[in-house]
Amino acid sequence: MPKSINKKVLRIHLLVWFLFIIWETVITNLLYDMSAPVINYVVHYSITIALFYLQSDIVLPWLGKRKGKWLWIPLFCVIFLLTYILAHWVGEIFLTHLLGKPVKPFYGMTWQSFLRNGYRGLFFIGFSTGYYYLYSFIAERRHAQELEKQQLLAIISQQQTQRELDLMQNAFLKAQINPHFLFNILNYIHFQSIKSAPQISEAVTRLASVMRFAFDIGDAEETVRLGDELDQIEDVKYLHSLRKNTGTLALNYELAVCDLRLIPLVLLTLAENCFKHGDLAQTNAQMELFLADNQLHIRTWNKIAKAKPAISTHTGLANLSKRLQTVYDRNYEFTYGPDGDGGFSVQLKIALELTLKPVSSTTTNTGTTVLP
């Protein structure tokens, strides 16, 4: 059933009906030498076209949805033929009075006209039925093609996803191989320099420890023990102490914080920020961790260096802020920026209850505001 007809389809329908009416009119005039006023053709063909679409667009779709539709078809054919004959008879009555023609008995209704209109009714029943099933076939075919297209797109999408998974798997395998190779090299350097250059050997050991911690957290839980990350900061402090004319990071913390858990690399990110952007030659940077008001407090401070670091993306604290937002929603406070006295301070406060166990990305909102 055509539920909606666009302009292109409408033009095709009008053209087909126009050609059919011209063809039938010409054939009738040539074979039977019959002609009639234009209004006569308009009335009778209007009735025929209306009944044609009444059947194809309304009656047949309605029959198609009913149970035992094949039992309804004979009754429908009889009703349609009687309707067709009656409609054209009413049209003839209308034309008789409109054109002032002599009134015939029963307005020209005879057995001959009855059978003639019955034959034409069967003729248009066939055309209308054929049109309905042809249109339905085309619509179902298009629907099937659309489903096939969607299935094909789904298969392509699935293949692309599988390809991406394969690439990620390969990258993961490479990530497993490369650190293994790197640690072997560091281990070799350590043993080769342990006697001749013990300081270098110690530096390599500390570097390997920090790197192994960073690599291993990818397989760890969502949070890490703060005590383990504090140990890595001690290694980072040692590595930075190898440089001449530089200070260090004064690390102060309560022992109670060591068993608390936090998302990984928070402390290392803050320490790196102090070492990279701080002027530690004049004043040591500071980091402190303590508990107060049922919250874990983490603070850092460093004097701002006048010279900018050679390599800096300026995204460390911004990325940390996004990570905190993703995991802790609004259950924390994170502020950082210049303090107005030539220093740069960072402060993180997080509810103590969230540091006692691993967290998920859907935590309860307590209404604490995240500061930029």
Automatic annotation (TrEMBL):
The Swiss-Prot or TrEMBL record annotates one GO molecular function as: protein histidine kinase activity
TM region positions: 12-32, 38-63, 70-99, 119-139
Q: Which UniProt keywords apply?
A: Kinase, Membrane, Transferase, Transmembrane, Transmembrane helix
Q: The organism sits in which domain of life?
A: Bacteria
Span of the secretion signal?
none
Which Pfam families does this UniProt record tie to the protein? His_kinase
Q: Which residues form the Signal transduction histidine kinase internal region domain?
A: 169-243
Q: What is its EC number?
A: 2.7.13.3
Q: Does the keyword field hold Membrane?
A: yes
What name does UniProt use for this protein?
Answer: Sensor histidine kinase
